[in-house]
Known about the structure:
- Helices cover 37% and strands 21% of the residues.
- It is of the alpha/beta class.
- It has an eight-stranded mixed sheet with strand order 3-2-1-4-14-15-16-17, with helices on one face. Strands 5, 6, 7, 8 and 9 form a five-stranded parallel sheet that branches.
- Helix 2 packs parallel to helix 3 (136-148) and helix 2 (94-110) packs across helix 14.
Amino acid sequence: MAGTTLWFEHGLTAAGWARGVRISVADGRIARLETGVEADGAERHGIAVPGLPNLHSHAFQRAMAGLTEVRGPAGDSFWTWRELMYRFGERLGPEELEAVAALAFAEMLERGFTRVGEFHYLHHDEGGRPFADPAEMSARIAAAAQATGIGLTLLPVFYAHSGFGGAAPTPAQARFVHDPDGYGRLVEAARLAVRPLGDAVVGVAPHSLRAVTEDELRAVADLGDGPVHIHIAEQVREVDDCLAWSGARPVEWLLDRFGVGEAWCLVHATHMTAEETRRLARSGAVAGLCPVTEANLGDGIFPADAYLADGGRFGVGSDSNVRIDAAEELRMLEYSQRLGLKARNVLARGEGSSTGADLFRGALTGGARALGVPAAEGLAEGGPADIVALSADHPDLAGRSGDQWLDSWVFAAGGAAVADVWRAGEHVVQGGRHRARDGIEARYRQALARLTA
Length: 453
Ligand code: NGQ
Ligand code: ZN
């Protein structure tokens, strides 16, 4: 992409908002960023902001969006949803995974996300037998990332047990399971599989304290030099089971035994005491929040108010992909706090500060840390050319300026405000639509026809 030059009416740079922003792209990065300049023949666009990291996704679940909203025989919950999700996942082969992931990744780009942390655990074939290549399914995730252009932080999942204390996995979990040696081979193979992407990152992901023993967790956490992601305290039953097993709550248990720091991302640290909240905030780890999925699954409300007051870092993820929209995750995060606390502008950093803008900046830097890439609060020379252009013509953005653009994107316009997206300098979304959407959709429809036949 050498030679591409873009011009924006306004842009959020690392030094703040600027007018007349000209960006020269080389090798996927911002080689030069000038402000207060005329377009001078460069392509003209609206309001440029950095693309947001999506720190937690299970791409395959995109294909069951809307299919788990029928009431079952008694007490629908996260756990009854999980049974349906397992059943859906059982039929997905490599071709279906690639097709579904490509649609999910294209939609992430269309809605403002430019890098995804794919927490990937469908490793073995439909019968639970390992493929000849342990990274067969991981390679399909990589192929979907390549086809769409999204940045990939691949998080191969280690899964070995069905509950605390090393309980044997259930038959429905057969596709996920490794021993630590097999997992080591998977991570090696996954590193090879993502190499063609150029700027992919590979981390490690012990699934949850339910799925690993302490020794396994130590072995897995020691394996990588990248991010470590884990599901932690999403459900009240999970906290109760952990207490019954160990006498400690999940976050407490983890912080007591492991050197949880900047490399760690604790996904759905929903249920914490005030003390756990404070300790997690001070650890330097990132809380991985997935507000839309957490609402859909009835998880509970993360104590974001206290956590941010203690200096905690966070990012957002689309997780189950029942909806894919960066603005919507930030909006839902704030709205859950408003509903719980009966207050407004809960997560703004202070008086006079914009809630949408503060959430955006927080999720930008926290998300980057969680996905193992450098973080900045705006577009900057040397940074990746991962750029989202909001439409200056969208009526919800009319008459706005500065942080009001972010507030109006997050709380009013939502995803429809995203006009163009560049990822590593490639113009992947044009006029709100991924450039390969037609082919990706056709392949997705064929996969869905097979899955639902
Ligand atoms: C997952 N999803 O791995 O897809 C999980 C459900 C579990 C969320 N936690 C399975 N949202 O946690 O056991
Ligand atoms: Zn998850």
